[in-house]
Design brief:
The chain is mainly alpha-helical. The protein has one domain. 63% of the residues lie in helices and 7% in strands. It contains six helices and two strands; from the N terminus they run ββαααααα. A two-stranded antiparallel ribbon has the order 1-2. Strand 1 and strand 2 form a beta hairpin. Helix 2 packs across helix 3. The radius of gyration is 17 Å and the shape is globular.
C-alpha cells in the first residue's frame, strides 16, 4: 500500500493500480505507430515487465515454467490495460472498474500457476481490504472530484 500526496490531499493506492495507471499513461502513440517513440515505450514496458517477473520469481521462488507463465499473464494484462487506456469512449469510473477487473483476473490467473506455499505468500489485493482512516480520501474520491459531470 502506498500513500500518495496530490494537491495537499493524502491518498492510498494499490501498487498494482498505480502500475496499471502509470503504464497506461506512458503510451503516447497509437497502436499502429512504428516510430522511435513507440519503440522506446515498448522497450521500457518490456523492461518493467521483466523486473516485475524477477521480483515475483525471487519472492515466491518461481521455477522457470512458472516465470514463463507469469510473464505471459502480465503481457496480456498490459495489452488489455493499453486497450482500455486508448478507448476514449470509456468514462473515468468505468475505466477504473475495468482496470480493477483486469487486476482481479490477473491475480486469479497468476494464483492458478502457483503451488500452495506460493499462494500463501501472494496476496496483492490485501490492500483493498484495509479500511482507510475516516479523514482519508480514496482514488475514487479524487476521480469523482476531478471528472467533469
Amino acid at each position: 500500500m502506498w500513500r500518495v500526496r496530490v494537491g495537499g490531499a493524502s491518498w492510498i493506492a494499490s501498487p498494482f493500480l498505480c502500475a496499471a495507471l502509470l503504464a497506461s499513461a506512458s503510451v503516447a502513440q497509437t497502436a499502429d505507430s512504428t516510430g522511435p517513440v513507440q519503440q522506446t515505450h515498448a522497450v521500457h514496458r518490456r523492461t518493467r515487465l521483466e523486473d516485475r517477473v524477477k521480483v515475483l520469481a525471487e519472492s515466491l521462488h518461481l521455477d522457470d515454467a512458472q516465470q514463463v507463465a507469469v510473464t505471459k499473464i502480465l503481457e496480456e494484462r498490459q495489452q488489455e490495460t493499453l486497450r482500455i487506456r486508448r478507448d476514449a469512449s470509456i468514462s473515468g469510473s468505468d475505466r477504473m472498474a475495468q482496470f480493477r477487473a483486469i487486476q482481479d483476473r490477473t491475480v486469479v490467473r497468476i494464483r492458478s500457476v502457483l503451488n500452495e506455499e506460493q499462494k500463501k505468500k501472494y496476496d496483492p489485493l490485501a490492500v483493498r481490504r484495509v479500511e482507510p482512516a475516516p479523514e482519508q480520501r480514496s482514488v475514487e474520491d479524487w476521480i469523482k472530484a476531478t471528472t467533469p459531470h
